[in-house]
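Design job #97: recover the sequence.
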């Protein structure tokens, strides 16, 4: 059964002019379960998010942007199709094949492609599986490149047994922090297209910080030092 989650979306547009075509490149970051108040660029004082703050300062920061739904898949369906939640084909978390975007609908990626953009998605798709032949894939919904989790269920772990790159499922040893692999592909996509002067739409729907709290030791150690008052404390936080 799909996990019903409170989906608080963080959206930042990072826009810079592509010199050759004079069209803006767009980097759209959708963080799963991250509230806008968790970021220092939106007033957070206990934690620091300098890299995201830089994106906000150099791009466009929205202060009146709402998630399309209260749970994961329908929020993504609203974002991809532009159809409001009350009229969208998907109004709740469903099995992968039921969550897939119908071919008759036009996605935001297809709109970008129609204007000469290269498109890439990197992270948690949440609208059907990302490989195979029986369901609609990111590649059939307007994305030239995809790297991320196989499906929404396995996106609840950051150490999966596999991940998908451009339709191919690649085995992992379950000791690999998959977020780093996905982000490296996103960085490469941005860098290659920027150097080529090719306008691009880069969609980065991270699974972080949703569900699993496990991460590489260096990240745990960083926050243990930052918040020592919670060390060895187990219980409910109010």
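Job complete. Output follows.
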């Amino acid at each position: 059964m799909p996990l019903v989650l409170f989906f608080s979306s963080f959206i930042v547009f990072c826009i810079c002019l592509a010199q050759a075509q004079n069209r803006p490149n767009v980097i759209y970051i959708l963080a799963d379960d991250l509230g806008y108040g968790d970021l220092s660029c939106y007033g957070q004082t206990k934690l620091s998010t300098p890299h995201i703050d830089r994106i906000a300062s150099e791009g466009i920061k929205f202060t009146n942007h709402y998630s399309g739904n209260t749970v994961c898949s329908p929020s993504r369906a609203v974002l991809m199709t532009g159809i409001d939640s009350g009229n969208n084909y998907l109004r709740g978390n469903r099995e992968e094949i039921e969550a897939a975007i119908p071919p008759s609908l036009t996605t935001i990626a297809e709109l970008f492609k129609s204007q000469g953009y290269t498109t890439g998605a990197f992270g948690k798709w949440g609208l059907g599986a990302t490989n195979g032949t029986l369901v609609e894939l990111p590649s059939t919904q307007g994305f030239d490149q995809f790297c991320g989790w196989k499906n929404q269920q396995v996106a609840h772990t950051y150490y999966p047994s596999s991940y998908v790159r451009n339709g191919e499922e690649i085995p992992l040893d379950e000791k690999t922090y998959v977020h780093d692999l996905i982000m490296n592909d996103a960085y490469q996509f941005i860098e290659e297209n920027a150097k080529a002067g090719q306008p691009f739409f880069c969609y980065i729907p991270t699974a972080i910080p949703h569900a699993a709290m496990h991460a590489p030791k260096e990240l745990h150690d960083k926050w243990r030092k930052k918040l020592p008052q919670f060390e060895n404390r187990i219980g409910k936080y109010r």
